[in-house]
Design brief:
single chain; alpha+beta; seven-stranded mixed beta sheet; two-stranded antiparallel sheet; 12 helices; globular
């Protein structure tokens, strides 16, 4: 193991290569890109289980058309406004396919795949509504109940675990962790103990960074995340025991589509934009971002946003919203 692997270095990220308008749109769509990719995977798995590579082609082509439009802002928002119609069409396609193959439709794997598709669509519809609302007020800060935020993240962790098809579990009690499991904890602390005041897009950032931490951490590893809000700032930290980032590459990993040289061989379902989005959102809200890492030594990401003096959405004065 190299010296760098034993000596993580923390670097403040202050700049990144400029991005095009198309790339900026892809960053905004990152929260739905991953879910669309999961849907594509589940549909392909369902075709495999039904042993018919044509039966779900209408659904697959519709989703692929949507994914290909993610960088075109007017087109993708037009698609997103019709997401319920797309869900209905795909559901009808699946039901028709199951009627064609009644014996295979009754198998546990097929039933689980169908249930997973509907579960992922539930997540998609929530995220689409968030995107549409965010488009109207991109600089807004809103109050989110802590209980609601924790429940939403719990659903994300369950979905990630389910998508592993039994390869691992995501547990929140370290005493229950076995060699193939991940231990994950996410604590939230605010002044009033009930709500978090934050830009809605920051939920995407936290979710993406926690998912990345899991993705680049071997099974049996640990992911520790925390969010603290005071009168002055909103601070988020996520730390993992994963493969880390070569020290000399830390300033580069926020570049659009850049992946560390030690993980380029890994196949992932995402677009590789998580750190890029985190950095550009941080700068959009006048915050600061640090990455502490080294190859083989895990990664710690810290984001600190100053609290606004007034709130764009919700109550007008910062003090009033803190209860």
């Amino acid at each position: 193991m190299s010296t760098q692997a034993c000596c993580p270095v923390e670097i403040e990220i202050t700049e990144a290569p400029p991005i095009s308008s198309q790339q900026e749109t892809l960053l905004d769509m990152h929260s739905v890109l991953n879910t669309f990719n999961i849907l594509l995977g589940e549909l392909q798995f369902l075709e495999l289980e039904l042993d018919d590579w044509q039966v779900l082609q209408p659904s697959l082509k519709s989703l692929e058309q949507l994914v290909n439009a993610l960088g075109d802002r007017p087109t993708i928002f037009a698609y997103l406004q019709q997401i319920s119609d797309l869900r209905a069409a795909i559901t009808a396609n699946i039901e028709t396919a199951l009627v064609q193959y009644p014996d295979k439709a009754a198998t546990p794997d097929v039933q689980e795949a169908v249930a997973n598709i509907q579960s992922v669509f539930n997540v998609v519809e929530v995220r689409v509504q968030q995107l549409l609302a965010r488009e109207k007020a991109p600089s807004a800060w809103v109050e989110v109940p802590i209980e609601q935020l924790q429940a939403q993240f719990g659903q994300v962790f369950q979905a990630i675990e389910k998508n592993s098809k039994g390869r691992y579990r995501i547990l929140h009690n370290i005493a229950a962790q076995e060699a193939s499991d991940y231990f994950l904890t996410f604590d939230i602390q605010t002044a009033n103990g009930r709500t978090v005041l934050m830009p809605p897009v920051f939920e995407d950032v936290m979710r993406d960074l926690i998912a990345n931490a899991r993705k680049y951490t071997p099974q049996g590893g640990k992911i520790i995340a925390g969010l603290v809000q005071t009168a002055d700032h909103l601070k988020f930290v996520v730390e993992d025991t994963g493969c880390g980032i070569p020290v000399e590459e830390i300033p580069k990993v926020v570049g659009f589509g850049y992946r560390g040289s030690n993980v380029q061989h890994r196949r992932t379902m995402g677009g590789g934009f998580g750190l890029t989005k985190a950095f550009f959102v941080t700068k959009r809200f006048q915050g600061r971002m640090w990455i502490r890492s080294a190859a083989g030594a895990g990664t710690r990401i810290t984001i600190d946003l100053p609290m606004p003096s007034t709130v764009v959405a919700g109550t007008s004065e910062r003090g009033d919203t803190q209860g």
